[in-house]
Model the fold of this input.
Amino acid sequence: MFTKTEIILSFNATRELVFKAFTESEHLQNWWGPKGWAFDISEFEVREDGVLHYSQTSPDGNVMWVKFAYQEVKAPEKLVYTSFFSDEKGNIVRAPFNDNWPLEILNTFTFTEHEGKTVLTMIGTPVSPTEEEMKTYEESQEMVQAGFSGTFVQLAGYLANISEN
Done:
């Protein structure tokens, strides 16, 4: 069985603005990641073969590094990238919360506009997982959905408080 994470949400903003929220650091740093965690960008180049490398620091001081490797950037319609936990230098490392988490996840975000709102569809699938990694991913869907849902609630709040520049 092959599992994917799929989340579909609607935002009360143009797709150009929602796309910018994902692709411009001045926007992304205001909403991405777990609530209450510090978000620091080390490298950010949104283009084919570009990367986003960042750290997140929990309120109790634990630091996690994450890296995105962009494969497709089609403004304002689509973003495709692999994501993985990394060290400070950007090398792939095991997830800090589970040694059997897949090393890489392929993420596809599509942005469509409908009646002045943006519909965001996010699909995440493990890249070449072992059987054990796939089992862990399948068993963790509730955690994954909750994590992204919290992040996207922050995005909705952020979008409600800014105007298109």
Remarks:
- The first strand starts at residue 5 and ends at 11.
- The chain has one domain: 5-160.
